Amino acid sequence: MISIDAESPVPPYEQVRTTLAQQMADRTLPVGARLPTVRALAADLGIAVNTVARAYRELEAAGLVETRGRAGTFVSAAGNQRLALAQDAAAQYAETTRALGIDRAEALEIVSAALR
Which UniProt keywords apply (predicted)? Predict the structure, then answer.
């Protein structure tokens, strides 16, 4: 499910967060799926409990998971909406740049700069 590269310059919590987020995006972890407990995942990965807890907090802040008290942490339906929101924003951007007479190459350069 998840592996941690101890040699990577990417912090372990970020490796956990990005792996889980990617699994949600590609539907390996579907909406409603229960994530392992923080303690269980930390033990499986051989990392500190606080490391996994931070990854879960960041996923929750992004709306990708929701914690239901003692029931656990689950993949949120809101996480699927993030792609739809991004697509809507992209469509609006494309419409705006066309109306302003900005060509495709320049519009892509603007987006690329904004994402840095």
Answer: DNA-binding, Transcription, Transcription regulation
Which letter does DSSP use for residue 102 in this model?
-
Which of helix, strand or coil describes residue 82?
helix
Please, is 12 exposed, middle or buried when counting C-beta atoms within 10 Å of its C-beta (0-12, 13-18, 19+)?
A: buried
Residue 33 pLDDT > 70 = yes
User: Please, are residues 64 and 79 in contact by the beta-carbon 8 Å criterion?
Assistant: yes
The CA angle 90-24-73, to the nearest 5 degrees, is 125
pTM: 0.69
Residue extents of the structural domains in the chain: 12-75, 80-115
**Residue 111: both structure tokens together:** 């987006």
Q: Which residues lie below 8 Å from residue 17, measured CB to CB, with a gap of 6+?
A: 55, 58, 59
Q: Which CATH class is domain 12-75?
A: mainly alpha
Q: Produce one character per residue of 52-80: b if its CB has 16 or more CB atoms within 10 Å, e if not.
A: bbbbbebbeeeebbebeeeeebbbbeebe
